[in-house]
Amino acid sequence: MTDTFSMDVDIGLIGCGRLGSALVEGWLATPGFKANRLTIIARHETLATDQARAAGAMINPSPDRMTGVGILVLAVKPAVWREALQPFADVIPEDTVVASVMAGVRLDDIRQAAGGRPVARLMPTTAVAQRQGVAGLYASDSKARTMATALFEGMADVVPLEDENLLDAATGVAGSAPAFIYAFVQALARAGEVEGLTPDAAVRLARGALRSAAAGVSDGQSLEDAIERIASKGGTTRAGLDALEADGGAERAVAAAVSAAVARARELSR
Questions:
Q1: Which of 73, 71, 33 shows the shortest CA–CA distance to 55?
Q2: Is 269 a residue whose pLDDT tops 80?
Q3: Is residue 235 helix, strand or coil?
Q4: Which among 131, 81, 88 is positioned nearest to 110, based on CA atoms?
Q5: Residue 191 to residues 183, 197, 199, 246, 251: CA-CA distances in angstroms?
Q6: What is the structure's pLDDT at 104?
Q7: What is the average per-residue pLDDT within 236-262?
Q8: Average per-residue pLDDT for the chain
Q9: Is 62 helix (H, G, I), strand (E, B) or coil?
Q10: DSSP state of 221
Q11: What does the DSSP assignment read for 78-144?
Q12: Terminal CA-to-CA distance of the chain, rounded, Å?
């Protein structure tokens, strides 16, 4: 990740739903980002489009206002992506990079619909809104890879992948995983209630545990070391881990969740 935004091109964004809005929020929060170089095409205006407009972005202009776009981000539902892209495919420059954040839409299909333009596919998490995201990246060529990385690296750790099929695995490990982790935190809070905590106290403590865990894992640090730093022999944490790991329970459940998410991503790409 970088601390500032350094791209010097006009940016187009088609789609401003949940993920598109998160992208807008992340860009607006990144030092150096120039909102007056952003154009958003959105079926429904949202708080994010209002904030972008107030910062200088252009919202829902006619397609001919997109003729200077250097990178075009597709953030619409997979079922409508061709319809959404079509009005702009003939007006954007021939060397414009098309960056997709859609699950299940293959790079070759996007490139064909985009007239052979360079294409990158990314699977970002919605924490890009807080500039704390992560995104798997696969690109058709070095230009698409470089530009997509520059567009996202101010709000996400961009992880390049060597095979497009690995984006499905990235979806299971990162794209869908925040919801898995929230489900664990929810279960943690409920367990706290069983042990006598009030619902409010249980939720606050569980959320605090999530923040503490995230803060305690630095880049490059072994996850095993992070666990062992807390789980002293014979202590309460080790007792809890032993119960969590009994009969492979935790690892088996996580593997099943990731496998199901990957399988669904592959179904969507057919």
A1: 33
A2: no
A3: coil
A4: 81
A5: 12, 9, 10, 17, 19
A6: 84
A7: 91
A8: 94
A9: coil
A10: -
A11: GGGHHHHHHHHHTTS-TTPEEEE--TT--HHHHHHHTTT--EEEEEE-GGGGGT-EEEEEEESSHHH
A12: 32
pLDDT at site 175: 84
Dihedral sign for Cα 193, 194, 195, 196, please.
positive
The pair of three-digit structure tokens given for residue 150, joined into one six-digit string: 């520059």
Order the strands of the 58-59 sheet from edge to edge.
Answer: 58-59, 38-41, 10-14, 69-74, 97-100, 119-124, 133-139, 156-160
The helix/strand count (H/E) of the chain reads as: 11, 8
CB under 8 A, 24+ apart: contacts of 202-205: none
Local structure of residue 29 (DSSP, 8 states): H
Tokens of 139: 């690109």
pLDDT in tens, 75-90: 999 999 999 999 999 9
Closest by Cα among 75, 174, 77 to 132:
174
Q: 54: which 2 tokens? A: 């107030």
Instruction: At 3, list the tokens.
Output: 């601390």
DSSP element (H, E) containing 238: helix 236-244
Rounded to a whole number of angstroms, the CA Rg of the chain reads 21
> Is the pTM value of this prediction over 0.90?
no
- Average the pLDDT over 143-159 and give the result: 97
